[in-house]
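Internal ticket - ligand job 437, pyridoxal-5'-phosphate:
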Amino acid sequence: MALLACEGFGIRYAVRIIDLPTQGAENRNLKIEISRTLFVTSALMPNYNRADLAFERGEGAWLTAVNGRRYLDFGAGIATSSLGHAHPGLTGAIAAQAAKVMHVSNLYRVPEAERLAERLTAHSFAEAAFFCNSGAEANEGLVKLIRRTQSETGHPERWRMICFQGAFHGRTLAMLSATGNPKYQAGFGPAVDGFDQVPPGDIAAVRAAITPETAGILIEPVQGEGGIRVIALDFLRQLRALCDEHGLLLGYDEIQCGMGRTGRLWAHEWAGDAAPDVMSSAKGIAGGFPMGAVLARHALARHLTPGTHGTTYGGNPLACAAANAVLDVVLAPGFLDAVQQRGQQLRTGLEAIARDYPHIFKEVRGKGLLLGLLCGPANTAVQEALRENGLLSVAAGENVLRLAPPLVVTEADCDAALSIIRETAVTFAREMGGSAS
Ligand SMILES: *Cc1c(COP(=O)(O)O)cnc(C)c1O
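stdout (structure tokens):
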């Protein structure tokens, strides 16, 4: 655990406590280690906070670094590598499609996209799909579709969206506003107008935020970046009823929590009768190949007439071949049951560790294979310690550490991850001077 880190002139210093003197011990010297690493400055823009670690290849839930060390990947490229690494079905489909035709544009029919849309609509509330290249782009499409539907059905004055505190919807100018987090907005000029934030779970606040200009509501059924906050199923049902009552359109952002991640194909399915009018998907949809999708009821989709919306790469044969290969696996009988079982295995194990080390892990959150550990120490310090012990994870809001392994993770992988997490908790408890209580 690095307690202090600073960098300058291409050198990163980290101070780490190796051994703490026990109370009343003869030797009161603190044993510390100062490490000095050279970090490479690169021609990439400095917008990411990268670990000094690069990977060469992977298999399943395992990644091998360029220095040969193996890591258990419970971050899955931020809940994206749904089939893990080097899945033969996915890599085979991509290679085969790339060798035939990769991109033709949407000036022509794309059979792979038609097939993908048929499969996605057959397995969701939706009746039509639009394909794009990222999550933020899918959410932009979702909001445009809601506004256009209101406009085409006699309500051009309805264009505002109600969104929720703690949400994350992406980094385009409009999605920064939908996200509404000042941390992401600073320095990027005036916020794009049209997004009103209310606290999740507070139906009275939502009702109070509705104005004659409100077009719809946008919510993540499980907030991912915000700290793995599971939205109550009853709240989703209340939003559905409120939308029906006021003629609003309901949009779900299932970019992170959808495509099997919670153990159902779509996270909102757990709520039963709270289907949206439109939904965005991305991240896991093509197993790491860049893709996004907007899925909607026909009543909305029919207003996206030729020329109203588009994107050059969207739904090209290569991306659709990748997404179809992911669906082959995720829709196979028993697959989502296995996701639920692995999720349960992890949750049970994590809750046991949190019981033993309540100062390190204060709470276990999430659903299926989208889990969060509310940390006592800084989540980034825990993330770094886990990485040093061979387990990759992702930090999230509210000091939560996110575990989102590939959906193909095995029982043995989960056991291995749990032992690393326990071992790390032991070290933290010792370094913090606390003990298992
Ligand atoms: C990651 C994410 C986005 C943004 O997706 P990008 O592909 O990074 O644009 C939007 N919404 C949610 C819920 C996400 O997790």
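Auto-summary: The CA atoms of residues 394 and 402 lie 5 Å apart. Residues 88-331 form a domain with the Aspartate Aminotransferase; domain 2 fold (CATH 3.40.640.10).
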